[in-house]
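User: I've been trying to design a sequence by hand for this structure and keep getting stuck. Would you show me what you'd pick, starting by listing the structure so we're on the same page?

Assistant: Good idea, let's start from the same input. This is the structure you sent:
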């Protein structure tokens, strides 16, 4: 170390001076800085509405109105036939002719029937004469028996002969009546007013007893007839409402009711015949007119066809206590737990008769995680086939 260094003066540490006025100004500045820093933080983002999978209820397939082809037919159609066998020699009416009750429509050859009637009348006359003879003989024997001129045995024989003659006379009367009827049966007479709807025999044909000659469609009540497949017949029952439109009468609708559903299918077409009775028959209706009929099915146990039955996936079912309910998204996007009436439970679906409409959006997935009044965003299923009914 040099000699000069030893003579340098010793430096003292400088202590910072803290002025009271400066310290009082720094505190507010620090608070302001912290406040500005707090204001510069981003505002918290509100939670987005929860997405829920929804579907709209669909009318049950069996409850959809059925549109079918139909034809106007007479309610009653009878086969006109002779009661006896014979050769058809005369037809007085033809297909489409209008007939009246009591009108003669056809005749058989009456030769055999006339001969039988003549023979029966001859037998009846002989039996009558035999009865008169037996009666006179009985009267004589009775008077002589009182005077003891004839034996009791002869009187008894006369009584037996008279009884036998009476029986023969009655039998001859019956045969004559039958023969007379047989002769009358050679004439075919209409039993009702109506229209000839079919011809089954021609002049000159030799007919068996009961073989049809004509088909007579009665005047008056008519039916609208249609055929349905086996997959549709289960949804149709007597009493179901129907609306009929006919091509020959455009612009007119005829209200009716299902009157009869065939219990067995036609062996050839494998369809079931359904007959509809019109509420107000119209004179403008003609047999054979064709058109369409719309039938509103009636579900068994349903009060009226006006009550719709809607289908939803079974995953939509929830319970409010012990009552079935469904989550429905309201117009404001909030959830509502709505009680419903379940008409039937299927393997993958439920049938609802009351509580929801086809316009309602029903939650079909995750129903046990929802809360009433919760704001949600309805979305369609990603895979619609998963909810196929």
């Amino acid at each position: 170390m040099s000699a000069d260094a030893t003579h340098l003066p010793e430096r003292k540490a400088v202590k910072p001076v803290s002025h009271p006025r400066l310290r009082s100004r720094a505190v507010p500045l620090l608070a302001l800085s912290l406040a500005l820093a707090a204001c510069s933080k981003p505002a918290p983002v509100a939670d987005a509405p929860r997405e829920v999978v929804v579907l709209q209820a669909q009318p049950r397939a069996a409850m959809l109105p059925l549109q079918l082809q139909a034809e106007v037919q007479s309610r009653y159609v009878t086969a006109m036939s002779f009661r006896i066998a014979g050769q058809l020699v005369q037809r007085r009416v033809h297909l489409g002719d209008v007939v009246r009750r009591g009108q003669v429509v056809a005749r058989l050859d009456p030769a055999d029937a006339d001969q039988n009637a003549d023979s029966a009348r001859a037998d009846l006359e002989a039996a009558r004469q035999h009865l008169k003879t037996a009666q006179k003989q009985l009267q004589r024997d009775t008077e002589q028996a009182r005077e003891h001129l004839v034996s009791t045995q002869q009187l008894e024989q006369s009584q037996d002969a008279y009884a036998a003659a009476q029986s023969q006379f009655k039998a001859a009367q019956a045969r004559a009546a039958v023969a007379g009827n047989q002769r009358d049966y050679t004439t075919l007479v209409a039993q009702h007013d109506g229209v000839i709807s079919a011809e089954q025999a021609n002049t000159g044909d030799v007919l068996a007893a009961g073989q049809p000659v004509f088909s007579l469609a009665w005047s008056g009540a008519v039916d609208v007839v249609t055929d349905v497949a086996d997959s549709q017949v289960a949804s149709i029952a007597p009493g179901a409402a129907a609306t009929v439109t006919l091509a020959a009468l455009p612009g007119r609708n005829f209200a009716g009711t299902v009157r009869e559903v065939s219990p067995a299918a036609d062996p050839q077409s494998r369809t079931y015949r359904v007959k509809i009775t019109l509420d107000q028959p119209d004179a403008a209706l003609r047999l054979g007119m064709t058109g369409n009929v719309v039938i509103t099915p009636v579900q068994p146990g349903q009060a009226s066809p006006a009550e719709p039955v809607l289908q939803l996936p079974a995953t939509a079912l929830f319970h409010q206590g012990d009552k079935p309910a469904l989550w429905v998204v309201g117009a404001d996007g909030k959830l509502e737990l709505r009680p419903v009436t379940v008409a039937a439970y299927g393997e993958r679906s439920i049938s609802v008769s009351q509580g929801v409409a086809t316009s309602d959006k029903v939650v079909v997935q995750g129903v046990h995680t929802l809360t009433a009044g919760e704001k949600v965003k309805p979305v369609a299923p990603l895979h619609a086939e998963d909810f196929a009914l």
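That's my pick for every position. To get oriented when you compare it with your attempt: The CA atoms of residues 91 and 106 lie 4 Å apart. The two ends are 106 Å apart (CA to CA).
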